[in-house]
Design a protein that fits this description.
By secondary structure, the chain is of the alpha/beta class. The protein has 7 helices and 11 strands. Helices cover 32% and strands 17% of the residues. A hairpin with a 5-residue loop joins strand 5 and strand 6 (121-123). Helix 4 (132-146) runs parallel beside helix 5 (167-183) and helix 5 packs across helix 6 (212-219). It binds zinc ion (2 copies).
């Protein structure tokens, strides 16, 4: 049986830290034999600038471009209009608008920011204490319950911090995995983590993510998982990091889903 290849986590140059146009990724997808390609560039917010994302003024052109490519390549590949975006409760009207007025097909929760217990917004890349993982997990769970997101990108990204894999990080994983099962939200095994170097952490030398402990727990639950390339360059759309991700999920007994829609 021929392997089905798809990807739903694809960036383009609009976020200013990825290379390649939408069409460059379509051509690469065809060369690598993908049957579906979902674009998920970093979404803008109309009034807040969290950085590292496309300008709001380009959102229309991004979606129009994918529409044009959908027609041009309709006999060869299925394209989807997605966005990677944070869940923050104050932006729910905007998620609604993206999925209706703007015609976005799916939202991928890429939670770089999270809500603290005090209601502040913090960046998970510099979490102040291990307990922040719990605040992060609660924000993800709330986001999944909002119903706006098909999948959560790198749900184990909180382990980029110098924390041990301990009761707190396991509790955070529990909260996230439970919410994914309850809301039938797909959890993404993010291949981009394998493209970076391994580093020394309190729980040993490892990649920032995917985190083995998190995924061993996920594999014990009836979760749906997907591999996301999270490519920021056309050449990494389907590379050895993606292939390693499929292998590792299967070793854990999780058969990845191939579509979010
Ligand atoms: Zn990025
Ligand atoms: Zn991404």
């Amino acid at each position: 049986m021929k392997e089905i290849r798809t990807n739903f986590h694809t960036h383009v140059q609009r976020c200013r830290h990825a290379g390649g146009t939408e069409e460059d990724y379509v051509k690469e997808a065809l060369a690598k034999g993908l049957s579906q390609l979902g674009f998920s560039d970093h979404a803008p917010f109309p009034e807040s600038d969290y950085g590292m994302r496309m300008p709001f003024g380009e959102l229309g052109d991004y979606l129009d471009t994918i529409n044009t490519l959908t027609k041009k390549y309709q006999s060869q590949i299925i394209l989807w209009k997605g966005l990677e975006i944070e869940y923050l409760p104050e932006h729910c009207d905007y998620y609604e608008e993206l999925l209706t007025k703007w015609g976005v097909d799916y939202l991928l929760m890429g939670e770089h920011y999270y809500k603290t217990q005090q209601g502040g917004t913090e960046n998970i890349y510099s979490a102040p204490a291990p307990e922040s993982c719990l605040e992060y997990a609660h924000t993800l769970a709330e986001g999944m319950r909002s119903g706006y997101f098909k999948a959560v990108a790198h749900p184990d990204v909180y382990m980029i911090n110098p924390f041990a894999w301990d009761d707190i990080s396991r509790k955070a994983a529990d909260i996230i995995i439970d919410a994914a099962v309850a809301t039938d939200t797909v959890l993404e095994y993010n291949a981009n983590g394998f493209r970076r170097e391994q580093k020394q952490y309190p729980d040993g030398v490892r990649y920032q993510y995917p985190h083995a402990g998190f995924w061993e727990m996920a594999a014990q639950a009836p979760v749906r998982a997907i591999v996301g390339s999270d490519c920021h360059d056309p050449s990494s759309l389907w590379d050895c990091a993606v292939e390693a991700s499929y292998r590792r999920l299967r070793e854990l007994g999780l058969e990845p889903v191939v579509s979010l829609l």
